[in-house]
Specification:
Strands 1-2 form a two-stranded antiparallel ribbon. The longest helix has 31 residues. It has 23 helices and two strands. The protein has 506 residues and is mainly alpha-helical.
Length: 506
């Protein structure tokens, strides 16, 4: 068996992991973010000034925000169930130290701070949880696409062959979810009237880089005979094409149907597609081809997974547009966001109930087909992930009230209530509308060039696989390679952000 076939077999015929393990794994990123924020507040409390060194800021961000995730998806995966508790305990310890070290002369009673927290007003123009959600989906995807080629990455985290819930299966849907949260239709103010198909035109011109990248990936993979999992998207198809087509199709649907009814369109699409899968031979065609023996002759047969899963991904996108519209409703108080988080949590519980019913009586989760169960699962877990970031942000806002003048990058800016003098509006350090502190932050850096970060990760993944026999790497080599790979990607984004360079030319 050739080296290419060995690598393909290494990532094939897998069945995924449990929903519980994925849920626990998703809690790690918000906990790391909370840990970083608490450490910065403790630093301010100790030194009386924010961390201003860009070098130390980058190292702190990488070691706290990225490195723990690398360890948890490799050598620490056997004890993953304990990791959220360990990190949460460390955060609790840091919070306790912050509370105990506050100056006695400026100390306010805890009960009064809780009351002040509930009445706190937040910057309504910026929702940091959306930014952090999209960045972390990108970071986790970048880690996984290389780590999956090493033996230390558990096979249960990789993409399932037909049915199953792998971590990487969720990553694909989360990318679609994150894109929909910030699409033009969501960001467009309701009071602004535009031609009905203006967003479709804008999307048409903004998706050409995705098509270009898809063609580039196709040509490069075929030219170097790079290993590929054919049952993932097909022979010629890839995720860049999926993302481009879904964005165009969604803009067309949103030009036809009112965007506030996008949830109805999403349900209709997912249910209709599942009905067709169950009542026709379409399911057998996706799984076994037109001849029943997994033929790849002809364009449709060759790319059947990529082409037909578009309906499921489109349903996820439309549902995510509805989520985005709900999130961007004007909420400028902590109380309003607590209520929104509680409502979202209730929605998640309903979705998981629907998922249980769908898996039991309709069809198990299948990313390969992007069926109804897969759509429900992706939306439920993405909402859970987002709620965790909202809770993290609110916790950091509360901690900043304990330590006046402290600041955390990519966290809510506390403002004075409406109607007060704008001259003294901000209580924290100066922040721009995008929520960036005066010093550089890794999350802001990646957010500024997200597509470039994802492209760079893909190129670096290919280079590592061509140069190194990843399957036979020892533990120390694997950890070293993965850390160097992620640090290099983050460093490039950090340098571009420090120089205020955005490589977006469309």
């Amino acid at each position: 068996m050739s080296h290419k076939h060995v690598k393909e077999a290494f990532i094939s015929n897998l069945n995924g992991t449990s929903l519980l393990e994925i849920s626990l794994g998703l809690s790690l990123a918000p906990l790391c973010l909370l840990c970083r924020g608490l450490l910065l507040i403790l630093y301010y409390l100790h030194y009386g000034k924010p961390l201003s060194s860009r070098t130390y800021s980058l190292l702190l961000d990488f070691l706290v925000l990225v490195s723990p995730l690398l360890f948890c998806c490799t050598v620490l995966s056997p004890i993953l169930f304990f990791m959220p508790t360990i990190i949460a305990a460390f955060c609790a310890g840091v919070f306790s130290k912050i509370q105990s070290q506050r100056k006695h002369e400026t100390r306010v009673p805890f009960r009064q701070i809780v009351k002040e927290f509930q009445e706190t007003y937040l910057d309504p123009e910026y929702i940091p949880a959306i930014t952090v959600f999209r960045v972390y989906v990108n970071v986790l995807t970048s880690i996984s696409i290389l780590a999956v080629d090493f033996p230390q990455y558990p096979r249960r985290y990789a993409k399932a062959e037909t049915y199953g819930t792998g971590v990487m299966d969720l990553g694909v849907g989360a990318f679609i979810f994150g894109n929909a949260l910030v699409c033009p239709e969501v960001r467009q103010k309701s009071c602004v009237t535009q031609p009905k198909f203006s967003n479709l035109t804008r999307q048409f011109f903004s998706t050409w880089p995705l098509v270009f990248l898809g063609v580039g990936r196709l040509l490069s993979v075929k030219s170097v005979e790079y290993h590929e999992h054919t049952s993932e998207y097909g022979v010629h198809w890839n995720f860049f094409f999926t993302l481009a087509i879904v964005r165009l199709a969604a803009s067309l649907l949103l030009a036809i149907f009112p965007k506030n009814n996008s949830w109805i369109v999403a349900i209709s699409l997912a249910v209709l597609y599942q009905l067709i899968l169950n009542t026709t031979s379409l399911k057998m065609f996706i799984l076994q081809g037109s001849n029943g023996r997994d033929t790849r002759v002809g364009f449709l047969n060759a790319n059947r997974e990529g082409l037909l899963s578009l309906f499921g991904y489109l349903a996820i996108y439309m549902a995510s547009v509805q989520v985005g519209l709900c999130l961007l409703k004007v909420r400028n108080s902590v109380r309003g966001w607590i209520e929104a988080a509680c409502f979202s949590l209730l929605t998640v519980l309903v979705l998981f109930l629907c998922l249980h019913v769908a898996q039991a009586y309709v069809d198990p989760v299948s990313r390969r087909m992007a069926n109804l169960s897969y759509c429900i699962w992706v939306i439920a877990h993405c909402l859970t992930f987002f709620i965790c970031f909202v809770v993290t942000d609110l916790t950091l806002v509360f901690t900043k009230l304990l330590v006046k003048g402290s600041s955390v990058p990519c966290c809510w800016n506390v403002v004075k209530p409406p109607g007060t003098s704008k001259k003294h509006e901000t209580q924290a350090v100066p922040i721009t509308r995008e929520g960036k502190l005066l010093h550089t932050c890794l999350i802001s850096a990646i957010n500024k060039n997200q597509l470039l970060f994802f492209l760079l990760a893909n190129v670096m993944t290919g280079a590592v696989n061509i140069l190194i026999d990843t399957i036979h790497c020892k533990v120390a080599s694997t950890l070293c390679i993965l850390h160097l790979y992620m640090f290099f990607n983050c460093l490039i984004m950090y340098i571009l952000h420090a120089k205020n360079i955005v490589l977006k030319f469309w």
